[in-house]
Amino acid sequence: MLRFLTAGESHGKGLVVIVEGLPAGLRFELPALEEELARRRLGYGRGPRMRFERDEVTLIGGIRHGRTLGSPVAIEIANTEWPKWEQEMSPAPGTPSKLLTAPRPGHADLAGMQKYGFADARDVLERASARETAARVAAGCLAKALLAELGVKVLSHVVALGSARTEKGVVPRPEQLAEIDASEVRCIDPEAEAAMVAEVKAAAKAGDSLGGVAEVLAWGVPVGLGSHVQWDRKLDGLLAQAVMSIQGVKAVEIGEAVRVSGLRGSEAHDAIYYDEESGSYFRRTARAGGTEGGISNGSLLGLRAYMKPLATLNRPVLATVDTASKEPTLSFKERTDVTSVPAMGVVAETMVALVLCSEVLRKFGGDSVAELVRNKEAYLASLGETPSAAPEGARRGG
Questions:
Q1: What's the CATH code of the domain at 263?
Q2: Is residue 352 part of a domain?
Q3: Structural domain of residue 363, as residue ranges?
């Protein structure tokens, strides 16, 4: 199994991630990681920090001459703004220059202050910040590299931003990832893209923020990841928990769960077919999102992450209480985006990839990438299937 831990604060010296469980022999080089981190900074409506945040990355351990060693991989992402924050965020004994005592509704500020007994919301917000997701993306880059060795591809695209939405059934292909990332809002539908940009402009003018929805799709996921035997082994449950852990995400939909909940059973499920040429069972639709009973079924895996509007507004209007004086006031303002839904999609890719990677390693095992690939191919052969993907057609909107 794969596991990872992140450490670091938003304005601290940097972020660190340690990834344990990767097999030896996985090809991995720094430019691929830098490119993936740059994708997290994409999106119309991002704040000024994205213009000078550069994610200076150092590979600390676990990789030699471009390949993993089977030992834990450690990565550091330096904060290029650290000199401005060195005194305020110093680990040495001292006192803050100013206490933040007007917690933001919708943020971790007040609940965290109450839980840990803090008088300063910065002791909470620095770790609760979405800046932490840069370390997750670094871990996810490794997971994606391993999944690629098994023919699994993961991408995301924005399907809603504010009230603007794509047309039903718009499903990009893996080779369209560059096209998605070239969009200002990471949306594959040009008409919806224009409407989304207009929504962001209007919210920015009002000093407000926007939420939205990103869809994550994974092709080539083999049958048999996850399990029905225990609640914490179910693949859909693992995916939902991982994606829900992203800052600002308040709901996760597997497949077409919301629409299907209003249908009769005769219309709701994915009929099963058999292809004699490939020796594969397949489904022409993926309403269930590629999982049945907590197990991957070989169909296109799909889920949607629903993100609330950001809690920090450029025009503070949210009522709160000053935790020092107990007087009513308005919540404080940190540097913020109008929306970060496009970036959230990239992080959701990361979390899906990490879950799939962990379950692939649990299912197939192997101390090296070559052994892992052999084990997977032997498993498919035992099912009477070829290593190639099942027939085309299982996708959302069918």
A1: 3.60.150.10
A2: yes
A3: 3-382
Domains in the chain, number: 1
Rounded CA-CA distance 300/291 in Å is 9
Q: Does a structural domain hold residue 210?
A: yes
pLDDT digits (tens, 9 = 90+) for 122-143: 999 999 999 999 999 999 999 9
Amino acid at 138: A
Copy the structure tokens of residue 202.
Answer: 């209007």
Please answer whether residues 136 and 350 qualify as being in contact, where contact means their C-beta atoms are separated by less than 8 angstroms: yes
To 10 degrees, the CA torsion angle through 386, 387, 391, 395? Answer: 150
pTM (predicted TM-score)? 0.93
- The residue ranges of DSSP E strands in 220-308, in sequence order, are 249-254, 272-275, 280-283, 291-292, 295-296, 301-307
Mean pLDDT of the chain: 92
- The confidence band for 47, taking pLDDT boundaries of 50, 70 and 90, is low
Question: Each residue of 276-329: pLDDT tens digit?
Answer: 988 888 999 999 999 999 999 999 999 999 999 998 888 878 899 999 999 999
Cβ contacts of 34 within 8 Å, gap of 6 or more: 55, 57
